[in-house]
Amino acid sequence: MKNLILILSVLLTSCSTLGFGDFSDQKTEVNTDRSTKIDESSSGKIPVKFTYQPLIGGRHEVFLVGDFNNWSQTEITMKEAN
């Protein structure tokens, strides 16, 4: 019985240490020493560059999807840059 209690307490302690037992709704802010400079225009848009390198030679079509185009799988085709 003592072994069972010991195993159970070790298991519960391990789970809470890994974050499995933390169910609080409090938000925690983490401050770092790093700062990131963002080139933002007056419109609030941030330029983003997407790149793709196929694993096997040949030509492939790559489509960019997301919330910005209503998840359309054919609206934005990436073009090859020379």
Automatic annotation (TrEMBL):
Q: Which InterPro entries match?
A: Ig-like_fold (IPR013783)
What name has this protein been given in UniProt?
A: AMP-activated protein kinase glycogen-binding domain-containing protein
Q: Which organism is it from?
A: marine metagenome
